[in-house]
Amino acid sequence: MSLEDPVALYASKLYLGIMRRVSSGIDELDLLLGGGFLRGSNILIRGNTGTGKTILCCHFLVAGAKNNEKGIFISCDENHEDLRVSMSCFGWDLRKLEENEMLLILDLGRQRRYHLGRYHSDIKPICNDLIAEVETAFRQLNVQRLVFDSIDGLEAILGDFLMFKKFVFHFSTFLIDLGLTSLITTRFGSEGRKMSHYTGMELLCRGIVDLFLEEHGHDSKRVMRIQKMVGTRHTLRKIPYEILSTGIEISTGGIFEV
Ligand SMILES: Nc1ncnc2c1ncn2[C@@H]1O[C@H](COP(=O)(O)OP(=O)(O)OP(=O)(O)O)[C@@H](O)[C@H]1O
Ligand SMILES: [Mg+2]
């Protein structure tokens, strides 16, 4: 086994228990994860629409910026300006982070419109440009955190299922090889069917965090669950949370005994 192989290096560090952890941006979640996400891992954030996936991702990038770790937000769902506006509700000034070169937002929907006009619906340039832009950001800007929001949005952008599936596999391997800590979002489909099932993202990702709404009579409560987290002893309990003006708040009562 060569330790120049990033996968072998990751496995040996995991085995030796010397992997460093990075903050999720939510203190209580960090406690439940033994300090945060493992550096260099890719985490799938699954949840229905409106459960707070994009907000969780912004917690993660803002926490990185506070720690002087640069981030990339690849947006397939919201355009650049909508994302800035919706996240400003939580006191996050994404524009300022971009101006200070702590954050790079790639609006994939906009790139698609550009390429479709230019290449007459050839989608390969979108995939190639994305890989090139992430690699450049990693090498030249020393980016350490990445958000991909969302896998379903990418499918809609690419419109070609086979190409989409191949790209998802290639891209997630590429992120691990670069050593970026990444959050990748996906929605559950109707009737509880997991949209990401057919991409195999559950197997490709080293962690899975689920966000869902639980029915309580006439009310619904927000609940989070850590479904999988390689190299981490974690609770399987449902973790109640709320979305407040400061973002996601986890109610701590009774969930800290693992
Ligand atoms: N200022 C705010 N204060 C409290 N809650 C808010 C605020 N703004 C939005 N929310 C809540 O956050 C939800 C949106 O969160 P978010 O955009 O992260 O969801 P999502 O899981 O990414 O959804 P989608 O799958 O549609 O992208 C809203 O539906 C609302 O319930
Ligand atoms: Mg979203």
What does this 3D model show about the protein?
This protein is α/β, with parallel strands linked by helices and 258 residues long. It has a single domain (22-189, 196-254), classed as Rossmann fold (3-Layer(aba) Sandwich), CATH 3.40.50. It has helices at 6-16, 27-32, 53-66, 80-88, 94-99, 108-119, 124-141, 151-158, 161-178, 201-204, and strands spanning 21-22, 37-38, 42-47, 70-75, 103-107, 143-149, 181-186, 207-216, 219-229, 239-244, 247-250. A hairpin with a 2-residue loop joins strand 8 (207-216) and strand 9 (219-229). Helix 8 (151-158) packs across helix 9 (161-178). The mean pLDDT is 86. Adenosine-5'-triphosphate (ATP) is lined by residues 47, 49-55, 77, 89, 187, 243-245.
